[in-house]
Design a protein that fits this description.
Layout: H1 3-22, E1 30-32, E2 39-41, H2 42-46, E3 50-54, H3 65-76, E4 81-86, H4 98-108, E5 114-116, H5 128-136, E6 146-149, E7 155-159, H6 168-177
């Protein structure tokens, strides 16, 4: 390895370390995509973007909110919003397997935003992000809770299941964030 290559490698390592430290600890980590072997690094996915985190379930009375979440994803994607769905069976409303859950999300509702494989979103088994969301606001009491994070990863707003993605207060909060 020549001197220039070593210098470039050193700079890459420094920038990588700086980027990792800028990402909040609760966003650090890999999560598997729904019905896939592929994983997503949340820091990379959300870096410098506003984030909408939601805990959907495929067999819930609020499942129709997938449509509004997808509309928000498409409307605000180019303005810097990332939508991330954390499938969960904490409320016993998730499909019996990931293939069925994926079909409901991707086929029935045309979801194109990032959907992750089921993880726990409440209690002591909650994934690190949902533990931080609960500390900053409140733990989800049901499916389809919506959390907004600013471009630095700070939690700024929580909306419960009853707030639909097309509610004025919800869209206003997104637009203020962007």
């Amino acid at each position: 390895m020549n001197r220039l290559s070593r210098s470039l490698l050193g700079l890459t390592l420094i920038f990588t370390a700086l980027g990792a430290s800028a990402c909040p600890e609760y966003l650090q980590g890999e999560y598997r995509r729904l019905h896939s072997d592929e994983s997503v690094n949340l820091c990379e996915l959300t870096q410098g973007k506003a984030v909408l985190v939601v805990n959907p379930a495929s067999h819930c009375g609020f499942t129709k909110q997938f449509k509004g979440l997808e509309e928000a994803h498409k409307k605000y994607l180019d303005k810097g919003l990332v939508v991330v769905g954390f499938a969960s069976d904490d409320f016993n409303q998730e499909a019996k397997d990931e293939e069925e859950a994926a079909s409901i999300c991707f086929v029935n509702f045309g979801v194109t935003f990032t959907m992750l494989a089921p993880t726990s979103v409440k209690g002591e088994n909650a994934n690190p992000l949902f533990k931080a969301l609960a500390e900053a606001t409140e733990e989800p009491a049901w499916n389809f809770n919506k959390y907004l994070l600013d471009r630095e990863g700070k939690v700024v707003k929580h909306f419960g299941s009853m707030t639909s993605p097309d509610a004025k207060k919800f869209t206003r909060a997104i637009e203020e964030l962007l």
